Structures are given as C-alpha cells and as structure tokens.
C-alpha cells in the first residue's frame, strides 16, 4: 500500500524541521572543519525544508510547522556526542525520505531516493563509516 | 456397450458444440495455456534479476580489486561485505512464479549464502560532499575498473546508484524502498572510495 504523497512529504518536512533544530544543538560543540560541515548541512536542510514546504502547498495542503522544542535522543556535551547527534539526525532524515520512495508518483520516488543518498552521505561523514541499508529499519537480517 | 458409445459420442461432439457456440477451450478452462509457452515473468522479478546480476558484478569487481592491490585493498573489505549483504537481501525478495524460470544470470557469481566476514561498519567517507551521486546508465562491468581498480570501483558504484534509482520508479513500493536504500549505500561508497 503506497502512502499518500502529502503524508510522505509531510514526514520528510517534519524530519527536516528536527534536523535544523538538532544541528543548532550539535554545532555549538563542534569546531574547525566539523563546524563548517555542520553549517553547510544546516543550510542544506533549510533549503530542503523550503522546497518541501512549496511542494506540499502545491498539493493544497498545509505544511507541518516546526515545533518550538525537540527532545534530543541523548545529551550533547562534547564533540563526540555532537557528531553522534548529527549522524542520528541524518539517519532520521534518510528514513523519512524512504517514505517518499514508496509513493506511486515516479518523479516523487526519484526525488526521495536522491534525497536519501544525500542524507546517507552526510550520516556517513559524521559516523565515519557507511551502512549497508540506509533508511531501512534494522532487522536481524540487516 | 451402449453407454460406451454415448461417452465416445460426447467426447467427439464436444469441440463441435463449443465451436458452434462460439467458445474456445481457453474460455472454459482457466489456467495457463499449455501451448502458450512459459508465462512472462512479473516486472518486479525482471527488475530484481537485473539488480541481482548487477550486484554480483560489483562483488566480482571488488574481489578482483582486492586481489590486485594487496595491502591497500583492506579498506575495500567492509564495502564488499555490504555488497554481499545487498545481494542476500535482493535474492531473498526473488520469487519466481510456478511455470516460469528465473534467468541463469540472476544466479550471479557469488553463492546465495554469501557470508559477511567483516563488520557491518563500512569505509570512511571523505567530507561534506558525501552523498552526491550522478551516473550514467548500465550496470557495473569489468572494463570499468580500468587501470586503477579503485577508480573503477568508484565509477561502478556511481553507475549502480544511478541505475537503481531508475529501476525503483516502476516496481512495487517495498522493492522500491530496498533499491533506494541500496542505491544510497552505493552512493556513500563512492565517497568512501575517494579516501582510499
């Protein structure tokens, strides 16, 4: 069963909102090239947010708004935890775009797949390693 | 004797009755036409077979590269392990309907029980440009390796990611998601290979 276009796009938008917030928290604990990367990725997530907002509005739906506050999955207090948070945010974004890949609209599928590649690449940068199945839920066989 | 004659007469006249009624035998009997040959494979199966063949090709390229470059090839092992995981998952989805046969090419060059001998964690991506992916059509080929095996792998990974994205457009949602995830993994390999 394919998810609806609007609900899939809304899920991606919600993940982008969370990433924008999360990068703000992570960036405060990063320096040098890591901080520069965080700034670049934060800008990218803002651009993705704006693009998704436009796409959802074009479908005559109201884009989900950002929350005022997001619970971070763990406390961020140094470089290591900041990088771990950034990787986690990108994992969540990758998984959200995976929902778009399941819609019946072929152009949206391609859009979601390309966004997954970008997010998986950023997650790999922060993690320092690649994954076999970015975006898919972990299973015993994965 | 009389009963046998009646049965024989019924068998002989049935096609005539069907013909006069404008019916063909296929209208009455459901199921595959025995004269129709093997039914075509479902589209998803065809796509899966192509993906399996391509994945097996990538694995062969990695194994060749690892044997060619020796010590430097150790960094390729985690990426090879991830491709072996891809192949296992793709093969797990392959269901060939009765009456049809999967092409021999889908058996690939690796065994179905290809084991993952390295940790799931993969190579080390290089930097902020990670994840960018573009590519041309077609699957990986031995010729892509060229003179520098790692450069050949990079080109093959880029090509694989692009091909998978094209393939996922027309398949069922669950398979599309698997192909998208593998494509994303391949795209991260491009960057990881740049740092070797």
Overall radius of gyration of chain B: 25 Å
**Overall pLDDT metric of chain A:** 96
Amount of beta strand of chain B? under 5%
E-strand count of chain B? 0
- Parts with pLDDT < 50 across at least 5 consecutive residues of chain A: none
Distance between the termini of chain B: 88 Å
Give the distance, in angstroms, between the N- and C-terminal Cα atoms of chain A: 23 Å
Judging by the overall fold, what is the CATH architecture of the domain at 43-96 and 134-194 in chain B?
A: Up-down Bundle
CATH architecture of chain A: Up-down Bundle
On the 0 to 100 scale, the average pLDDT of chain B is 74
**Order of helical and strand elements of chain B:** HHHHHH
Class derived from helix and strand content of chain B = mainly alpha
- Give the radius of gyration of chain A: 15 Å
DSSP summary: helix tally of chain B: 6
């Amino acid at each position: 069963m394919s998810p609806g276009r609007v609900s899939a796009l809304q899920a991606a938008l919600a993940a982008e909102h969370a990433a924008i917030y999360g990068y703000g928290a992570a960036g405060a604990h990063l320096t040098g090239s890591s901080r520069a990367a965080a700034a670049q990725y934060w800008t990218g997530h803002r651009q993705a947010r704006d693009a998704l907002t436009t796409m959802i509005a074009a479908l005559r739906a109201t884009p989900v708004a950002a929350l005022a506050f997001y619970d971070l999955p763990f406390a961020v207090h140094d470089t290591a935890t900041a990088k771990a948070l950034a990787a986690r945010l990108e994992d969540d974004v990758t998984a959200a775009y995976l929902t778009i890949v399941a819609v019946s609209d072929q152009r949206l599928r391609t859009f979601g797949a390309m966004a997954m590649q970008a997010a998986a690449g950023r997650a790999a940068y922060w993690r320092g390693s690649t994954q076999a199945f970015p975006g898919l839920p972990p299973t015993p066989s994965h | 004797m009389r009963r046998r004659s009646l049965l024989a007469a019924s068998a002989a006249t049935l096609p005539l009755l069907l013909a006069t009624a404008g019916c063909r035998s296929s209208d009455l009997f459901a199921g595959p036409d025995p004269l129709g040959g093997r039914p075509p494979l479902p589209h998803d199966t065809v796509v899966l077979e192509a993906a399996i063949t391509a994945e097996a090709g990538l694995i062969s390229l990695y194994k060749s590269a690892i044997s060619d470059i020796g010590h430097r090839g150790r960094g390729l092992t985690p990426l090879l392990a991830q491709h072996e995981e891809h192949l296992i998952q793709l093969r797990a989805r392959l269901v060939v309907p009765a009456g049809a046969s999967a092409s021999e090419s889908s058996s690939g060059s690796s065994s179905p029980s290809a084991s993952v001998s390295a940790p799931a964690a993969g190579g080390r991506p290089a930097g902020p440009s990670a994840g960018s992916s573009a590519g041309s059509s077609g699957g990986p080929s031995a010729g892509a390796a060229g003179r520098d095996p790692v450069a050949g792998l990079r080109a093959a990974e880029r090509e694989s990611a692009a091909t998978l994205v094209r393939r996922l457009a027309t398949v069922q949602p669950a398979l599309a998601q698997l192909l998208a995830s593998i494509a994303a993994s391949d795209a991260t390999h491009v960057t990881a290979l740049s740092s070797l």
